[in-house]
Write a structure and sequence with these properties.
It comes from Candidatus Gallibacteroides avistercoris. By secondary structure, this protein is mainly α. Helices cover about 85% and strands about 0% of the residues. The protein has two domains: about 50 residues; about 30 residues. The protein has four helices and no strands. The radius of gyration is 23 Å and the shape is elongated.
Length: about 80
């Protein structure tokens, strides 16, 4: 397979979506904006406020972080036995 064929397929797929968005009505574009805003909130805002980086705030070195994760995983396995 030539490089041009793979690139052509990717280009055709990209143009399919680009053309679809260009021809989309006002309602469709508005709904996509709402979806993108929701995804931004889910993945960025909620991560920052509700899932702080526990390991970086409680342990100084990479070895301490690794030991903590290992011990937690071992405890979980032992509880399930």
């Amino acid at each position: 397979m030539k490089n041009n064929e793979g690139c052509s397929w990717i280009r055709k797929a990209a143009y399919l979506y680009i053309d679809g968005f260009r021809n989309m009505g006002r309602l469709g574009k508005t709904l996509w904006i709402i979806i993108l805003i929701k995804l931004f909130i889910f993945f960025v805002v909620l991560k920052l406020f509700f899932f702080p980086n526990y390991l970086n705030t409680h342990f100084e070195t990479e070895q301490e972080r690794a030991d903590h994760v290992t011990n937690e995983l071992i405890e979980i396995v032992n509880k399930n036995k």
